[in-house]
Inverse folding.
């Protein structure tokens, strides 16, 4: 349980009363109560409100806000406010301002415009946090602390350049090691003094965001940038925890957000909290994948859905309304994948600036007689009805997908083989195949213990870190099924090619070697021709993007290419290794192939969902707590459906109606069945 102060799923979201007068706040609270809202985040962007100059602090307004909320039964999450520095600071101390990727120095404006390596920024941020902690550490309203807001971006200023050199010295100790890791003998890049190393951006090594002359330095700068922001986060985290060891401290993160390695951040978040903003056409499977990725950051512990919009966003090209029922459906989808909260951005619409058209619980009209408020209030009643039944329940999976930020950066910094290769897209294809069969999935880092899984999938495992190949071999030897794809096992953690033939250190367990890799525009496809049936895998499928020309070194050839000069060469192989199997997929197959492949593997490994829905758009998942099992059935369709649930008996907690092996669900409807 996140906190003993609220014995139910926390409900509410971001609240910015500094933008309104006190009469408005009183009216807001009346409506919060009506909607059963019991938690709000405050002070997220209010640094300037409380500190008008270098020495003046005024928290009287925040005292009033927190006290008034608490008096009305509403708990708070206190934001540290450091996501947006005040104008006076930028004016007096320009070293806090970032330098962009193109080398331009920023002026005051926007948000997240603080250089993470500015000692000035760190000084005033820590002073502000200390003042907040001293003032509110014992306030009974405080449920958790929220550091900054959606950490992100990058800086390329002189502060960062100097600190990058310090970071490199810690990582490599000597320039010889740097030169070796970056292969600087190429193009005469050898460094003889630390001061010769500059930030890799458009003024130096880059010719585009993803395009760099030297992958090694750009990869290390990505690591450094993530670590720099993490150091700022840790500074605030440690200040709060030192004063209030027992409190919950987190920050709101953003799913598959490329610039920050969240797996390194997770130890400094007491609970994972993330902001979910799919668009109208985002695949349901992709949103589910983001929830699972976030849950995986702390080994399956429940997370917080910290932000979602109750209706529409403001920053997408087309900011569509959530159709009636969709907000509820997507809220429960988060819960189905491990969330112990339903929270929104925002509680009341801003009157001006870029988020004035971002959805809110309370619209500009200012009263509760709106569709959105009614839906929020109805969901609030359901969460009260659920009480604490779902809190601390866990998602259990026997299939895992490996996700690695270092690998992501390295894949997409690489000069070739294809500009069309997107790491997350390839990961999603494999996830979707399992999702469509309602097979639950954990996302794991390369540091994770694999022994609890029966199937481990590592799409595009381009970078193999020290010891990982051995971990995979042990997993397969002991009976596990491992699957990887084209462009795997190519480089080490410095993006240096592992010599001796692809797939490098994975060659032994996979039983293949790769001679060449063909890359063609996406409109050019090839055929996957089955050499033998495997479950539902039979006949011919299509593939595109990359085409790995491989040789078997003991692996069984499951399928071959149907076209091009490499016709009849292996495209899908399976190697028996010890008690297990290692699969290699040498191209990017169509979804039909992956569905049939995963179906066969799931059947063979005994992880197939016995209650998998055959109807498209029906998502089924479960959470368990002690001897209790909760089955979530989500209808992502516009139409009503009848869903067969063989062997399932229980009560739908949202309607209190008994369920016996089937259930009727309306458009965008949800059921949560507590099994008998």
């Amino acid at each position: 349980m996140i906190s003993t102060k609220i014995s139910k799923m926390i409900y509410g979201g971001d609240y910015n009363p500094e933008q309104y007068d006190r009469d408005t706040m009183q009216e807001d609270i009346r409506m919060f109560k009506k909607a059963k809202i019991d938690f709000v985040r405050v002070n997220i962007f209010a640094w300037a409100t409380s500190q008008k100059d270098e020495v003046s602090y005024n928290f009287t307004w925040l005292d009033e806000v927190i006290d008034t909320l608490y008096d009305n039964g509403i708990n708070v999450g206190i934001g540290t406010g450091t996501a947006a520095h005040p104008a006076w600071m930028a004016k007096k101390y320009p070293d806090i301002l970032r330098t962009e990727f193109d080398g331009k120095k920023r002026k005051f404006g926007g948000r997240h415009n603080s250089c993470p390596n500015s000692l000035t920024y760190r000084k005033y941020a820590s002073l502000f946090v200390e003042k907040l902690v001293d003032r509110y550490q014992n306030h009974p309203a405080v449920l958790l602390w929220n550091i900054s807001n959606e950490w992100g971006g990058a800086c390329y200023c002189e502060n960062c350049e100097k600190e990058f050199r310090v970071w490199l010295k810690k990582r490599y100790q000597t320039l010889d090691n740097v030169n070796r890791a970056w292969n600087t003998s190429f193009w005469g890049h050898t460094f003889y003094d630390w001061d010769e190393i500059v930030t890799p951006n458009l003024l130096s090594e880059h010719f585009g965001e993803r395009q760099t002359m030297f992958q090694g330095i750009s990869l290390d700068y990505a690591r450094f940038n993530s670590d720099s922001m993490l150091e700022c986060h840790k500074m605030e985290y440690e200040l709060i925890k030192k004063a209030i060891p027992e409190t919950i401290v987190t920050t709101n993160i953003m799913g598959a957000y490329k610039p920050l390695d969240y797996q390194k951040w997770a130890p400094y978040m007491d609970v994972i909290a993330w902001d979910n903003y799919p668009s109208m056409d985002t695949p349901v499977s992709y949103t589910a994948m983001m929830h699972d990725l976030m849950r995986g950051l702390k080994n399956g512990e429940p997370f917080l859905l910290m932000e979602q919009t109750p209706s529409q966003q403001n920053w997408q090209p087309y900011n569509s309304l959530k159709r009636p029922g969709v907000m509820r459906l997507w809220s429960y989808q988060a819960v189905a994948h491990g969330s112990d909260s339903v929270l929104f951005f925002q509680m009341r619409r801003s009157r001006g600036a870029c988020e004035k058209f971002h959805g809110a619980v309370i619209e500009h009209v200012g009263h509760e007689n709106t569709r959105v408020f009614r839906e929020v209030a109805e969901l609030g009643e359901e969460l009260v009805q659920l009480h604490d039944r779902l809190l601390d329940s866990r998602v259990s999976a026997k299939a895992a997908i490996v996700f690695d930020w270092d690998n992501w950066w390295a894949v997409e910094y690489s000069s070739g083989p294809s500009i069309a290769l997107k790491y997350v897209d390839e990961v999603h294809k494999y996830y979707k195949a399992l999702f469509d069969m309602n097979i639950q999935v954990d996302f794991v880092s390369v540091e994770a213990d694999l022994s609890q899984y029966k199937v481990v999938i590592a799409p595009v495992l381009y970078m193999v870190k020290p010891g990982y190949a051995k971990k995979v071999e042990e997993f397969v030897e002991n009976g596990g099924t491992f699957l990887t794809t084209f462009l795997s096992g190519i480089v080490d953690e410095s993006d240096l090619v592992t010599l001796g033939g692809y797939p490098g250190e994975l060659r032994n367990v996979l039983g293949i070697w790769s001679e060449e890799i063909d890359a063609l525009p996406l409109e050019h496809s090839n055929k996957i021709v089955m050499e033998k049936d495997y479950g539902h895998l039979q006949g011919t499928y299509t593939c595109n993007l990359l085409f790995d020309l491989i040789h078997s070194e003991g692996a069984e050839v499951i399928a071959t290419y149907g076209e091009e000069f490499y016709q009849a060469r292996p495209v899908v192989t399976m190697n028996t290794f010890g008690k297990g199997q290692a699969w290699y997929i040498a191209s990017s197959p169509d979804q039909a192939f992956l569905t049939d492949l995963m179906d066969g593997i799931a059947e063979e490994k005994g992880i197939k969902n016995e209650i998998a829905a055959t109807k498209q758009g029906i998502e089924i998942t479960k959470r368990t707590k002690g001897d209790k099992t909760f089955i979530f059935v989500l209808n992502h369709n516009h139409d009503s459906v009848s869903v067969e649930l063989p062997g399932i008996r229980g009560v739908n907690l949202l309607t209190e109606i008994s369920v016996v092996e089937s259930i009727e669900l309306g458009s965008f409807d949800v059921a949560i069945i507590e099994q008998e």
In short: The mean pLDDT is 97.
